[in-house]
Inverse folding.
C-alpha cells in the first residue's frame, strides 16, 4: 500500500511498477468493461498489485481488487467474491462507515487541490487526512495533489501510503521519500 500509481495505459503502468509502485490502479474513466479487462490482462505480469477503478465487473473477471467512490455500487458484490475493496473518503465518518462495510483500505482526499480530478471534493488538508487515519484501523492511502515534495507529510499525518496520477513521472523519488518516511 505504500505507493499507488493510477494509470490509464500499459506503458505508464510498467514505468510505475519498474520505478517502485507497489500498487497499480487501472483508471479508465467511462471505458467499457472489456477495455479495462484487456488492459488488466496485459498487466498480469506487472509485479505490483493490480486494482481497477470503479469497475466491479472488470475486477471480478480479472480476480483483482477494486477501488470505489462514495456511493458507487458493487461493494457487497466485490466483498462476497472475496475481492479487496478500497473506498474513497473525505471525512472520518465516511472512513468509519467504509471500514464497517468491509473496505480493505481507504483512499483519503483530496489532500490538496488537484487538476487530475476537477470534480473532486474540496481539499481536506493534512488535518483532514490525520482525522481519517485516526478514525480507522485499516490502511489509509492519501491522494490528491501529492508529489515528492509533500508525500512524507502525508505519511507523518498517519497515511500508510500515497496515490499519484500526475506524479507517476517522478515515481522513483516518490518511492524513496515514502520509504524514508515510513
Amino acid at each position: 500500500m505504500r505507493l499507488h500509481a493510477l494509470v490509464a495505459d500499459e506503458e505508464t503502468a510498467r514505468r510505475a511498477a519498474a520505478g517502485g509502485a507497489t500498487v497499480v490502479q487501472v483508471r479508465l474513466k467511462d471505458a467499457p468493461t472489456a477495455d479495462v479487462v484487456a488492459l488488466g490482462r496485459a498487466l498480469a505480469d506487472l509485479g505490483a498489485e493490480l486494482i481497477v477503478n470503479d469497475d466491479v465487473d472488470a475486477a471480478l473477471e480479472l480476480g483483482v481488487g477494486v477501488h470505489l467512490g462514495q456511493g458507487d455500487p458493487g461493494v457487497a458484490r466485490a466483498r462476497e467474491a472475496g475481492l479487496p475493496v478500497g473506498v474513497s473518503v473525505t471525512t472520518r465518518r465516511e472512513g468509519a462507515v467504509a471500514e464497517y462495510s468491509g473496505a480493505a483500505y481507504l483512499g483519503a482526499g483530496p489532500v490538496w487541490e488537484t487538476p487530475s480530478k476537477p470534480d473532486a471534493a474540496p481539499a481536506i488538508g493534512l488535518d483532514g487526512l490525520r482525522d481519517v487515519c485516526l478514525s480507522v484501523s485499516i490502511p489509509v492511502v492519501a491522494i490528491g495533489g501529492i508529489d515528492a515534495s509533500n508525500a512524507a507529510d502525508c505519511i507523518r499525518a498517519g497515511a500508510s501510503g500515497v496515490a499519484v496520477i500526475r506524479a507517476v513521472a517522478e515515481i522513483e523519488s516518490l518511492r524513496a521519500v515514502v520509504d524514508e518516511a515510513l
User: Anything to note?
Assistant: Helices lie at 10-18, 33-42, 56-62, 75-80, 92-100, 125-135, 151-156, 171-181.
